[in-house]
Amino acid sequence: MSTGPATLTERPSGMKQQLSDYLELTKPKIAVLLLVCVAIAGFYASGGQPDVVRLVNVIIGTALVAASSCVWNQCLEVHADRRMNRTSQRPIPSGRLSRYSSAMFGTLLGSIGVAYLLATVGWMPALIGVLTWVLYVCIYTPMKQWTPWNTTVGAIAGALPMLMGWLAVNPTLDIKAISLFAILFFWQFPHFMAIAWLYREDYEKGGMQMWSVVDRSGTKAGLQAVSGAMALLLVSVVPGLGYIAMPNITYMLLSLFGGTVMLIASLRFFTSRDEKTARQLLFASLFYLPIQLGLLVILPSGV
């Protein structure tokens, strides 16, 4: 029989494709950025001397919960994803994976993630992990179909892991913990308004009620970007306050510089509202966040 060798060679290939598809469901590129934020929050909360085991544990638990929310998001948005060019070839809308098996996979990841957080870093990070999942999957995901305010809810869910990293090594939430949350929260407005503008036609095909879709002039998307950048500029200096008599002037000046660049890019997008300025804003936001978070590591203030 000539089919034997062919079958043997096809099986590993099919299994490899399935593993690749399940990995794709978890959106690993987004998870990496999120986990860097969690690690830096834990590092900063401990004054630069974190309990490495607890830090690793909160990163693992957060990764599992975040992966679960991404999987469930794609299970719920499969019909919209089929209509959009940039998402139509994802594993579920393309038919490579079923919604049922994907949902089971997402449930398994989330259950293990919450249990892991509860067992290793305590109930507060675990509780925030559950809250993040509920906000992202049960509120933000359906909101995208009926109101452009979905970005605000999504930004809350996107910033909460900062507090998971903080609470894993420091039981007290103070103004600096809130400022870390605020930096990640406000950063998402210029970042996602640029994306929403670049992919506005795709979002419209999918029935997504983004600001760039409901207001075709782009004015409201521009205002959201500028407002977010202004708030980001203000909150980004807070971690540099340190002890009142010893503010970290270098950190604060560099934060003001980075925030000003983001604000200028947002203003240019608001006034022009074209693809060129949207790409420049997206580019600026992608550089801004890792540099801003890096300042917290190399120029820490007292906690």
UniProtKB/TrEMBL annotation:
More about this protein: Carbon 2 of the heme B porphyrin ring is defined according to the Fischer nomenclature.
Keyword Membrane part of the UniProt annotation: yes
GO terms, biological process: heme O biosynthetic process
Name of the molecule in the record: Protoheme IX farnesyltransferase
GO molecular function, a single term: protoheme IX farnesyltransferase activity
Pathway this chain belongs to: Porphyrin-containing compound metabolism; heme O biosynthesis; heme O from protoheme: step 1/1
GO cellular component, as recorded: plasma membrane
Recorded family membership: Belongs to the UbiA prenyltransferase family. Protoheme IX farnesyltransferase subfamily.
Record EC number: 2.5.1.141
Transmembrane segments: 30-46, 52-76, 123-142, 149-169, 175-200, 221-245, 251-269, 281-299
Reactions catalysed: heme b + (2E,6E)-farnesyl diphosphate + H2O = Fe(II)-heme o + diphosphate
Enzyme class at the top of the EC tree: transferase
Sorted UniProt keywords: Cell membrane, Heme biosynthesis, Membrane, Transferase, Transmembrane, Transmembrane helix
Gene: cyoE
HAMAP family according to UniProt: CyoE_CtaB (MF_00154)
Membrane topology designation: Multi-pass membrane protein
The species this protein was found in: Blastopirellula marina
The protein's role, per its UniProt record: Converts heme B (protoheme IX) to heme O by substitution of the vinyl group on carbon 2 of heme B porphyrin ring with a hydroxyethyl farnesyl side group.
Location of the protein in the cell: Cell membrane
Principal location class: membrane
